[in-house]
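Sat 14:20. Reprocessing the chain from the morning session after the first attempt stalled halfway. Input below, unchanged.
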Amino acid sequence: MLSFTVRMTFDQAEHDAIAEMLCQLTAATRKEPGCVSYIPHFVEGEACTIVIYEQYVDKAALEFHRNTPHFHQYAIGGLYQKMRERQMENLTAIC
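Finished this time. Tokens:
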């Protein structure tokens, strides 16, 4: 199982556009084979920051996700173009 978070910051003026892109990306991603969990969040008290919690059954499922048309449209062509900063944290499950 692969688990990680992605944290991105955006300009406040992009809040509604970011929310819409994330809703579209989330709906499509959750239908992918191998996607266990995909949950985007706005960070409370930091309206310009999002955190996405993602889990995939294996590396092949993550690669599948990163090669989908919706990932290219909403992440690479949308979120990545509008973000100011991006950080990833790879996670290791304890139990």
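Residues 15-29 form the longest helix (15 residues).
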